[in-house]
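Quick start: read one record
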Amino acid sequence: MFGGVSAEVTLRAASLGTCRALVAVTNDDVTNLEAALQGRAMSQDLRVVLRLFDSDLADRVQRNFGITISQSVPNLAAPAFAAAMLRREVLGTISVGRRVLLIAEVPIQAGSELDGLASDAVNAPRQAQVIAIQRHATDTLELPAPPTTSSPAVTA
């Protein structure tokens, strides 16, 4: 089948009327949005999944139209690349809406900026949060409780 993905005639030819969902995942944000909105106009109960690379636009579309937005591969991979550049061991990533939280192990070296700081002094809104402390070479993780101080023998 050939045709514009957002054209009503193309969507009808693709049997949109009997579909339970429409997935619009081309490399073009405008095309994806047009297809999603046209599909929703043709069938109010249609589930729509939409890929948008512009995260601000994606937030607005999801909020205003109730359309599920998929994460783009570059957005998901970016935190891991950033962590590798910063020489941090990435333990995992967690997607929360259009944001990705990076879980990393940060060894504290003697004389570093973190050496001697209380764990709550390390926390920076929207940037960093100490979620566990591992002292020396043990396998035991502790939940930070102020005034926990970091030292070269501690990994945050």
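Residues 29-42 form the longest helix (14 residues).
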